[in-house]
Design a protein that fits this description.
- With 369 residues, the chain is α+β, with helices and mostly antiparallel strands.
- It has two domains: 176 residues, P-loop containing nucleotide triphosphate hydrolases (Rossmann fold), CATH 3.40.50.300; 128 residues, Glutathione S-transferase Yfyf (Class Pi), Chain A, domain 2 (Up-down Bundle), CATH 1.20.1050.90.
- 38% of the residues lie in helices and 24% in strands.
- The protein is built from ten helices and 17 strands.
- The strands form four sheets. A six-stranded antiparallel β-sheet has the order 2-1-4-5-6-7. A six-stranded mixed β-sheet has the order 8-14-15-3-16-17, with helices on both faces.
- The longest helix has 31 residues.
- The two termini are 42 Å apart.
Length: 369
């Protein structure tokens, strides 16, 4: 079942990271600006919002690491939505994983994703274009999975199947077993490549100053017009013709080696060749375009999390960002050191995050505190 998505009107944290107890009311604002010194717990608030999507959140941390070390070994994050739905994610020290509740009733973590679509940028992504291809794949696959609910599962399944294939080759398993593995790999790999191509094309429709590219063995077949079925057959033949190990390693091409790129149309350069600030601008443009795509395809508004939103941006770039935030149909939670930088953000509420001896004090108001 698909539910109407709603924005957060209040969120309460208990024993989450360095927050013993904290509550923020958004007062109906679309932009929530969280400021304060380093170590005050700004990113922890965004992380708390991010786990309401049902996954591990923007840090991908173990739940035992999230629980405040001076607490009881557990934590909870509770959000009240504009439609009065209450979502809760909690973890206790006698449980192996986090649990969810909706309006007080037990729910699956997957149910949370039906209520909230959440996408984020952190300082880690600021280096996305100069880091490894695996980091870019993980980033874009996470975005792709926002629309293809089976995509993340396929990516995980491909990794598992490739490990099984390497084990089978190393241990001399019979041809029938390898044939079965290769058939599963070919089908899963082609579905992954097709989802990536579709997502990139749809995202590019909403991008004006940049464009996303996808490069890879199967992806290129599909770009060249080969049908999914034909691409799957060709990749299966490739797998069957490459069943050797080199130094105990399987040398194999496929979607696990594919890469994503972004071309800056304004500068007429790949993003990797542009400045840090220009790369940050491109990343923000991607996330805002993703939000527009979510709204277009689902008629629902997402939540965008921007950690250190204005980092690396000059005054002109910040002005363009703030203008875009005013125009996007999404609730945005952004952090930064200096509240004055965000003075021109429209429809904003400011939250000051301060470390106290015991509790963090979060003060929400229509002006900087």
């Amino acid at each position: 079942m698909v539910y109407d998505l709603a924005m957060i009107k209040a969120i309460t944290l208990y024993n989450f990271r360095n927050h013993a107890a904290a509550r923020i009311k958004t007062n109906g604002c679309r932009n929530i600006i969280i400021t304060g010194p380093n170590g005050a717990g700004k990113t922890a608030i965004l992380e708390a919002v991010s786990i309401l999507s049902g996954d591990k959140g923007l840090r991908g941390a173990a739940m035992s690491d999230v629980a405040r070390f001076t607490g009881d070994g557990g934590f909870s994050v509770t959000a009240e939505l504009e439609d009065d739905t209450e979502l809760c994610v909690y973890f206790t020290n006698n449980e192996s994983n986090r649990k969810a509740r909706i309006d007080g009733d037990s729910a699956t973590l997957g149910d949370l994703g039906n209520r909230l679509r959440i996408v984020w940028l952190t300082p880690k992504e600021d280096r996305l274009f100069i880091e490894s291809a695996s980091d870019r794949r993980a980033f874009f696959d996470r975005l792709t999975a926002s629309f293809d609910t089976s995509h993340a599962g396929r990516v995980a399944r491909l990794s598992k199947l490739l490990s099984e294939r390497a084990f089978a080759l190393k241990n001399g398993n019979d041809k029938n077993w390898l044939d079965a593995l290769d058939a599963q790999i070919a089908g899963t790999a082609t579905a992954i490549a097709a989802a990536r191509i579709q997502y990139a094309g749809e995202l590019n429709y909403f991008l004006t100053d940049c464009a996303v590219t996808v490069s890879g063995q199967i992806e290129q077949m599909l770009i060249d017009g080969i049908t999914n079925a034909a691409a799957e057959r060709q990749y299966l033949t490739y797998l069957q013709n490459n069943r050797e190990l080199v130094g105990d390693k399987m040398i194999l091409d496929g979607p696990h080696k594919s890469d994503f790129g972004v071309f800056n149309k304004i500068l007429n350069l790949p993003a990797v060749l542009t400045s840090t600030g220009q790369q940050k601008t491109v990343l923000i443009n991607l996330i805002l375009a993703h939000a527009k795509l979510i709204h277009t395809k689902t008629k629902h508004s997402p939540i965008i999390l921007l950690d250190e939103a204005a980092a690396h941006l000059d005054e002109t770039a910040r002005a363009l960002l703030f203008k875009a935030l005013g125009e996007t149909d999404a609730q945005v939670w952004a952090t930064g050191l200096d509240a004055n930088i965000f003075a021109n953000v429209p429809n904003a509420i400011f939250v000051t995050c301060k470390n106290g001896e015991i509790n963090n004090i979060l003060v929400a108001g229509n002006t900087n505190e």
